[in-house]
Amino acid sequence: MIVNARMYSVTPAAAEGWKRLLPEAVRRAGLTAEIVDYPAPARLEGLWARSDLLAVFMCGWPFAQRRFSVRPVAAPVTEEAAREGIPGHYRTLFMVPTSSTARCLEETFGGRLAYTNPESHSGYNAVRYHLSAYINETRKTLYRTLVGPLITPRRVVEALAAGEADVGPLDSYAWSLLCRYEPELTRHVRILTRSVPAPMPLLVASDTVNPQAIAALQTALLTLNTERDATLLRPLGLRGFITPSADAWQVVCDREEIAFSRGYATLR
């Protein structure tokens, strides 16, 4: 079985943090697993289709769509979400270059919109839902150019910093990790506005994995705490993990349908 945190290995330091935390949770569960690297630009769908997943991060949108034969294990509780009182949730941040004069999202309309990929919630679906509120009979197109697919949150930041895009989405947890470890990069961009919260990407296991093994791993993750396990959690900006019900992620599919009903099926 394998573990992988590609989605939130946004810097080398973050990647190392996950390579400490996940194997330790597996060890405490009395299990064994291999750490598998799966670097961008390889498509995450290829990873999620494997039948030997034990603890692998998956975007909540394909999980809610039931596109892959997986079971939920746990979702992280970030420090930011804990402060907001929304454990297990995150937001999509609309980022602009620090030099941008835009004071609101409407002031970016007509410009260049970056995105990660059309299978991502934070990098596409959440963007579409948020922007669909601005569509009307006289305004059916919001941006003159799309920049992407950029695949990773980091590439969105880099594109904005390089002046290749005017606005782009960022997973708020990915942003917090980038800010923690690469301030020289993040100082070139700023937050313009935020989406409504959505359930976090989650750790999943293949549905071929023994349910008792999944339960043992869930227990190991849920019992991580900020006092005893500070060296595992704090470098990743985490308070711990929770196990939401499997239908908690349905809301992201509902938002897809709302965007479609507003006549905004694709970013434009």
Q: What percentage of the residues does DSSP assign to strands (E)?
A: 15-25%
Tell me the name of the CATH class of the largest domain. Answer: Alpha Beta
Order of strands, main sheet, comes to: 2-1-3-12-4-13
CATH topology of the largest domain: D-Maltodextrin-Binding Protein, domain 2
This entry's quaternary arrangement is: single chain
Count of extended strands: 13
Tally of alpha and pi helices: 11
Largest sheet: 6 strands, mixed
Q: What is the CATH architecture descriptor of the largest domain?
A: 3-Layer(aba) Sandwich
Shape verdict = globular
The CATH superfamily title of the largest domain: Periplasmic binding protein-like II
Mean pLDDT: 97
Distance between the termini: 41 Å
Helix and strand succession?
EHEHEHEHEEEHEHEHHEEEHHEH
Q: Specify Rg, calculated over alpha carbons.
A: 18 Å
Q: What is the share of helical residues?
A: 25-40%
Organism: Citrobacter koseri (Citrobacter diversus)
Pfam families: Phosphonate-bd (PF12974)
Protein name: Phosphonate ABC transporter, periplasmic phosphonate binding protein
